[in-house]
Amino acid sequence: MSKKSEEAVVEKNMGLLELLSSPMNILFAVFTTFTVGMMIPFTRACYACASLHTANKPEGYDFPALSDMKLMAISSVGFAILEYVCRSVLYVAFVPICKEQVDIPQRTWRSGKGAFCTYKFFYFIAATYWGYYCMVDEYYFPAWLGGSGDFTISFREYPYAKHAYQLKEYSLVTMGYHVGGLINHFINPRRNDFLEMALHHIVSLYLFGGYYLFNAWETGAVVALLHDIADITANLVKLLAESKFKTSTAVVFVIHMIVWFYTRLFLLPLFIYQIWT
Q1: pLDDT score at 12
Q2: CB within 8 A of 246, min separation 6: which ones?
Q3: How far apart are CA 176 and CA 224, in angstroms?
Q4: What is the torsional sign of CA 155, 159, 161, 166?
């Protein structure tokens, strides 16, 4: 077995103490602890505000409640199972096109990574389509994303907005995807990026849960959709990078950089500024 193969196999089975032997992982552990700690007072303030809005809601208005999370819980279990099944099935399909065919441990690792990215690629296509279907004709969906609305007025009807058709289900089900990913993240063998990805999943869940329970669906759903767009091309690049298709990988990588710059480096800061002001 080559040295590179040995590193790939070891990376899948790192213990907690081994993870913390890396200065970078120690930094992530400290930052994760700090972030979770900062969430506590913020959560209390948000809960008090949401409770006030619930108490003063118009008669008959269905303000978000913790009981709504049943759909999210069911979705999270479904996504956790779907991820496991898809990774197993897609692995078999990916092996013949894997770029490594000689070094078997490397092929196993790369095919597993390719299968996982394929699953995520199709998920983000579906999630992006659903988000567009729900919001494309709404008054707050911006022209920057193909709509005809104005994101600066996404809080116009807050806190008792009349939400778009299926926006509730879209928010809860996509939140369930991230919870399912967090479940599998703690079940699967630890890799070198375990703490980094754990922080990513925790923050994602917190943001989804926050915008839902705070009833800021219009603003939160647009930002969530914005992230999903670049995740389509990101996972397409990752799966192609583990395949034999070198030319396709290079072409998609260039497209991904354009999409990433537009959505994450231009639109996201713009939307954050518009929310803040």
Answers
A1: 52
A2: 99
A3: 13
A4: positive
